[in-house]
Amino acid sequence: MANLNIKSKQENTYGAIVIGSGMSGGFAAKELCDKGVKTLVLERGRSVIHNKDYPTTNMMPWEFEHRGQMPEDIQRENPVVSRCYAFREDAAHFFVKDQEHPYIQEKPFDWIRGYQTGGKSLLWARQVQRWSDHDFEGPARDGFAVDWPIRYKDLAPWYSYVEKFVGVAGFHDGIPQLPDGEFLPGIELTAAEEYFKSVVEQKYPGRNVISGRCAHITGNAEYYAKQGRGICQHRTICQRGCPFGGYFSSNSASLPWAQRTGNLTLKNHAVVHSIIYDDAQQKATGVRVIDANTKEVTEYFAPIIFVNASALNTNLILLNSTSKRFPNGLGNDNGLMGKYVAFHNYRGGVSGEYDGLKEFTTEGKRPTSGYMPRFRNVDKQETKFLRGYAAGIHGSRSKDVNYSGTGADLVKNMMNPSYGPWRVGSHMMGETIPKESNYVALDTDQKDEWGMPQLKVNVDYDQNDLDMIQDYRDQLSEMFDEAGFKNIRTWDDERRPGLDIHEMGGVRMGHDPKTSLLNKHHQLHTCPNVYVTDGACMTSTSTQNPSLTYMVFAARAVDHALKNQG
Amino acid sequence: MNRRLALKQLAMAAGGLALIPSCDFSEEKVLAAYDELQITESQQQLLQKLVDTIIPKTDLKGATELGVHNFVLVMANDCMSAEEQKQFLGGLKGFDDYTKKTSGTRFTKMDNVEAEKTVNAILEDKPTSDDEMATKYFLQTTKKYTIQGYLNSEYVMTELMPFQLVPGPEFNGKKEIVPGEKVNING
């Protein structure tokens, strides 16, 4: 028996283990494999192989039985995921249904999840704006959370490194709070957006409208062909999985790349129960895994462990990793793990119409839209709320179809549409302030079907968020008004936290082990061979989309891990 | 998807059987594909006439020819709440009697001109009774799904308003409009 155990331990030992195959886990795996490390990637969901497992990718609109709409019974059974804009007939198979992994909403929280190879990297909106020192210095300047232990200069070369691999379409805009990157040809704004840009940049110094930088290949085809990816064909149905590999996902890019090194072992249906801590060696030695289907428990071992399970699941795994040394969760001496969770505030929106530019329309589709980098409280505090918001900006020519009447009249009407006014709109992306009262914790009684404690979520908006929504509505409608847009309407959709799908924190970075969980290299302060580089590590949330920064963290942390391996 | 396909085939089989002359109309088969609705062959035929009244065959293909009546039933069966279904079904089941009462002829017996006139009148009317409300709701919903099913049919999206699954990498944000050029809502 003893011999068998030794044999199984050898068979289950790797150079590194990565928990999670999504955006950040996939990139960590690619980096590790590239550097010759035998790497085990644990993915709790099923296998989704690029181009093989995209069942809807080539379907025409009329081939969807409900033309995209989700049937009533599915919506009724899945109120949480049904609120997600992308949970539609073409991509529903890439989302976790409400009953599949229950959690406890002590406060309303829409936890949107994708359990499969590639995780949510198949489903993301692909906006990849860099963060800047305005973000990394925010907590220190404004006195919330704790100081980030890193600055933009620590990340800049890694941003370049990741962007080149990912492929980012963008323009060099020269905006301090939104550093330029390694860009492929940018995707142009529409006539209405161009016009709005000119009005804003003339009348509001310091405010800009640019084309959102997005993870789509628009050039350098030869280089990306080496990844097996091609130029983006602007289908804008990315959530189905792209047969061209035109946008970046773990499935199309980082995982196949890692696979080709011969160093990758990807294990699906692997629900991580906990990280194994060895009291004698004083380090983490492996990972305990429950087979999602058989419920069988297996242990895997490695000297380096990356936790990239997505922000809240990373919290769940670490909190569940208890030992004599760490009775409250791995690395959680200070009791702060699970706390200071924050997210993005997407509640506000503005719309209007523009009667000018009648001689123009748009042709083709584009995978991005206009973007207004944060302009509030950038260099100095100018509002009663802390921090700021970025805004999506979009303008497209409406097409009017006359649906009145019936019979031959209706047919004639429908077949002769005309151009209406330009429709312009915006949505906000606000920074929320991480607070101790916004936390996740393990429930002591209720377990899921794999025997893991259910996660309790306690996350809510605060007055700062409400003031920010109001300011966004005031500012954007004023700028729309300045531009001569008509029928301006603003709203607060009062969506629940979580629906932004940008939950962050709980295992935050910092200088001091007393007030943070991770050091500047993403190592747990008190268990340094465990790295966290997904959303859980975020000290604050910025106004920019976080995925690019997670990948940058992963690449940088792998570099550190391999250079500092004892 | 497979479940739906199976149900559709079942429905076709059921529809086929219903063509065999039967004297016992009280026990008309319900269409298995639309399990929530429990509608009969003759109600389906009424709906067929209705969608063809809304979008008849002209120079272009009509709604029934494209199977839009089936789409209306699929949407009503799968995508409506129980309350909406109740109203929709109330309107559908009572429609022939309603038109008999209001215009003296059953809808199913009307010629095309009369049918269209009747449908327009109901759509424009302000309902005052529950009956009228259900009828108007049924018609509005049927019209909505008929238009959706028609405009999103393969025929319209390939021959009349071509849709491109792979538009290609060109995007022009400032295309000059050529006066008189046909506007394509899927372009």
From TrEMBL, chain A:
<dbReference type="InterPro" id="IPR036188">
    <property type="entry name" value="FAD/NAD-bd_sf"/>
</dbReference>
<feature type="domain" description="Glucose-methanol-choline oxidoreductase C-terminal">
    <location>
        <begin position="434"/>
        <end position="554"/>
    </location>
</feature>
<keyword id="KW-0274">FAD</keyword>
<dbReference type="InterPro" id="IPR000172">
    <property type="entry name" value="GMC_OxRdtase_N"/>
</dbReference>
<dbReference type="GO" id="GO:0016614">
    <property type="term" value="F:oxidoreductase activity, acting on CH-OH group of donors"/>
</dbReference>
<keyword id="KW-0285">Flavoprotein</keyword>
<dbReference type="Pfam" id="PF05199">
    <property type="entry name" value="GMC_oxred_C"/>
</dbReference>
<feature type="domain" description="Glucose-methanol-choline oxidoreductase N-terminal">
    <location>
        <begin position="224"/>
        <end position="322"/>
    </location>
</feature>
<keyword id="KW-0560">Oxidoreductase</keyword>
<comment type="similarity">
    <text>Belongs to the GMC oxidoreductase family.</text>
</comment>
<dbReference type="Pfam" id="PF00732">
    <property type="entry name" value="GMC_oxred_N"/>
</dbReference>
<protein>
    <submittedName>
        <fullName>GMC family oxidoreductase</fullName>
    </submittedName>
</protein>
<dbReference type="InterPro" id="IPR007867">
    <property type="entry name" value="GMC_OxRtase_C"/>
</dbReference>
<dbReference type="InterPro" id="IPR051473">
    <property type="entry name" value="P2Ox-like"/>
</dbReference>
<dbReference type="GO" id="GO:0050660">
    <property type="term" value="F:flavin adenine dinucleotide binding"/>
</dbReference>
From TrEMBL, chain B:
<dbReference type="InterPro" id="IPR027056">
    <property type="entry name" value="Gluconate_2DH_su3"/>
</dbReference>
<dbReference type="Pfam" id="PF13618">
    <property type="entry name" value="Gluconate_2-dh3"/>
</dbReference>
<protein>
    <submittedName>
        <fullName>Gluconate 2-dehydrogenase subunit 3 family protein</fullName>
    </submittedName>
</protein>
